[in-house]
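DM from R.C. (forwarded with permission)

"hey, sorry to bug you on a friday — could you get me a structure for this? deadline for the figure draft is monday and I only need the backbone to look sensible"
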Amino acid sequence: MASRESGFTLIELLVVLVILGLLAGLVGPRIMKHLGESRSKTARLQIEELSTALDMYRLDTGHYPTTQQGLQALIEPPPGESGWNGPYLKKRVIRKDPWGHAYHYRSPGIHGDYDLYSLGADNAEGGVGENRDIRSWE
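My reply, with the result:
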């Protein structure tokens, strides 16, 4: 008596692959949209954290770090800076934005005492969606 081996036929496997492809086509773009939104939200939160640290620096020294001193002044005292009582960031590191680029800092700023911003995913001014600039003054 011949035994028949159990398994899937080629047609059954192709049907499953087509269904998986359709699901990926429907769900994939939605997941990518949320990923982009979460990176933008993360950048906003990091800018708020850096802004708070900059405000603490100002309370101690009477001024914000200069553009030349940069954000590094939040974790290491600039030469000759009296009143510095840092580090002002717990992890003692200046994080990059969620797209791997350094945050831009300018003091005195054009839009306030300082300008702190990320240029988004494309690291170029302007843009929409994930390429949109995220700024401390907005």
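R.C.: lifesaver. The chain has a mean pLDDT of 87.
me: no worries. The first strand starts at residue 104 and ends at 106.
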